[in-house]
Design brief:
Layout (H helix, E strand, L loop, with lengths): L7 H11 L3 H16 L16 H4 L1 H15 L3 H18 L6 H18 L5 H13 L6 H5 L2 H14 L8 H4 L8 H24 L8 E3 L5 E2 L8 E4 L2 E4 L7 E2 L1
Antiparallel strand pairs: 1-3, 2-5, 3-4
Length: 253
């Protein structure tokens, strides 16, 4: 009997993106997301996702968000809206499960991400404004430590991947405020996403491309070359070598 691999579907989704198959990636991400929410997949495997490990369950939101973007890339706006509606509902429900005000703010941030990604009828600005207000009302003594919690990481990583190579990307420092001891360190997250994520969604839909995540990278690799750009910038991800810039499979020199 084959041993169960909780990362297999996520890896399949990534390889589908590299191979230019966003519809297949969307389905794989959907299964990975729902599995994570059930405590069976990826970072949430074996976790109490509606209890002590609720933050790990939020990785299910990450993959449902990427499924939404992948459907947009595939030109299937109807399924993108369905996936976004699903993810938004789960994010709002998680706000009732987590323990603190700042965690509830992060859940509202995630809900707003789904509004932006799926082009839902609700106002994207209003959705992010609710998250902003919740963060400002939170009494969080250690914003920097909180930002590295699984819940906050899960809600960061999905949008950051979607924004890769779109011209609207952002890094950690852009996403957070300048003072890690002030709650504004976290307020910066929905503030930046409010301006960037709708443009990311438009670009993904227009180009038909959702980038894979950034894995282990090497510049000027001696063994691999990109067949499209001719450079040797390698992104090792999901068991394959992809071009860091073009997001296609590399070839051996």
């Amino acid at each position: 009997m084959t041993e169960f691999d909780p990362t297999a579907r996520r890896a399949e989704a990534v390889r589908a993106l590299v191979d230019g198959e966003p519809a297949r990636a969307a389905d794989r991400y959907t299964v990975a997301g729902r599995g994570a929410l059930a405590g069976r997949e990826a970072e949430a495997h074996g976790r109490d996702v509606l209890g002590a490990d609720a933050g790990r369950g939020a990785y299910g939101l990450r993959y449902l968000l990427l499924a939404t973007f992948a459907h947009r890339a595939a030109g299937d706006d109807r399924r993108a809206r369905l996936r976004a509606t699903e993810g938004r509902a789960v994010a709002v429900d998680y706000a009732a499960v987590v323990d603190s005000t700042v965690e509830r703010a992060c859940c509202l941030e995630a809900a707003a991400d789904f509004v932006a990604a799926g082009g839902l009828d609700a106002s994207t600005e209003d959705a992010y404004d609710r998250a902003l207000a919740a963060y400002r009302g939170a009494d969080e003594p250690e914003p920097l430590d909180r930002a590295t919690d699984p819940l906050f990481e899960a809600v960061r990583l999905g949008p950051q991947q979607a924004a890769r190579n779109t011209g609207h990307g952002f890094d950690w420092d852009e996403l957070h405020g300048s003072d890690p001891d002030d709650v504004d360190y976290l307020v910066g997250r929905p503030r930046l996403k409010r301006s960037r994520l709708p443009r990311v969604a438009e670009t993904v839909a227009e180009t038909g491309v959702l980038a894979p995540p950034r894995g282990t990278t090497e510049h000027n690799n001696a063994d691999y070359v990109c067949p499209e750009c001719g450079r040797s910038e390698v992104n090792w991800i999901a068991g394959i070598e992809a071009c860091l810039d073009c997001d296609v499979r590399m070839e051996r020199k």
